Inverse folding.
């Protein structure tokens, strides 16, 4: 008899739970995941920007991967699921586009920067402008290796434009990338160096002396794109639109970026069918 009562009680409890569940308001859907792959040299700026985007898009859960641009493009070529690629430079995006590995019309330029002449913060400057490179003697100038880095190629282009390459060739010290150039200057192994403003502005060990004229080298631009493996295309559009906002551009400026004319208009959030 007790067993019958116990079973009846269990039945009632289960029925109440079922009825309560059926009458309860629906549970909120899980946040959408937005996977962003970003070049390592963008880490400082986007550690500040991503929380701002999430604050405005509380239904989005951003996952970000930082790595060398060539590592990111290789992973995308092999099928890694990425919604937005923030390349170190737009040329990395062009490489994927040439292989037809991006979603059409998803490539946008969101910022640019300048090539700058730097020196050690602790030492007096041997020169005060780029023009003085042609007249004042300098023992060593650190630049990126043009065979291995975009900053090196841009620096050589700038030196050729100013007819300085042959004059300074014996003084050049090569670093594999911008951070290596910063190290050479900060350690005193080179009195001067040439890097992107975005690399120099966050270092307390160096200071910027002058900027190369924009017409002395190719435009240095930063782009965003949705690779062929993108899953959250609507979220990717929202994020790229966010990068064009006044608030985002203001934050980017603090990290050495310059704004560009917006080539997209904000896109309202919409569901994408699988």
């Amino acid at each position: 008899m007790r067993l019958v009562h116990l079973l009846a009680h269990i039945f009632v409890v289960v029925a109440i739970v079922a009825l309560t569940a059926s009458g309860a308001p629906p549970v909120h859907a899980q946040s959408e995941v937005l996977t962003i792959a970003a070049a390592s040299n963008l880490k400082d700026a986007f550690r500040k920007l991503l929380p701002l985007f999430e604050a405005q898009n509380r239904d989005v859960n951003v996952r970000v991967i930082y790595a060398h641009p060539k590592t990111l493009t290789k992973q995308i070529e092999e099928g890694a699921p990425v919604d937005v690629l923030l390349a170190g430079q737009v040329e990395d995006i062009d490489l994927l586009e040439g292989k037809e590995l991006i979603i059409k019309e998803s490539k946008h330029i969101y910022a640019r920067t300048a090539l700058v002449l730097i020196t050690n913060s602790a030492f007096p400057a041997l020169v005060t402008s780029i023009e003085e490179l042609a007249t004042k003697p300098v023992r060593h100038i650190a630049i990126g290796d043009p065979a291995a880095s975009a900053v090196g190629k841009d620096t050589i282009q700038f030196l050729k434009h100013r007819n300085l390459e042959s004059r300074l060739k014996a003084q050049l010290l090569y670093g594999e990338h911008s951070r290596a150039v910063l190290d050479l200057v900060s350690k005193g192994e080179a009195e001067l160096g040439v890097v992107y403003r975005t690399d120099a502005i966050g270092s307390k060990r160096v200071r910027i002396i002058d900027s190369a004229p924009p017409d002395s080298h190719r435009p240095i631009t930063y782009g965003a794109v949705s690779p062929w493996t993108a899953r959250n295309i609507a979220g990717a559009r929202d994020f790229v639109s966010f990068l064009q906002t006044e608030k985002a551009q203001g934050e980017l400026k603090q990290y050495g970026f310059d704004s560009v004319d917006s080539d997209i208009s904000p896109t309202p959030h919409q569901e994408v069918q699988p």
About this structure: The beta strands are 32-39, 60-67, 84-86, 108-113, 115-120, 141-144, 172-175, 192-196, 206-211, 220-225. Residues 2-23 form the longest helix (22 residues).
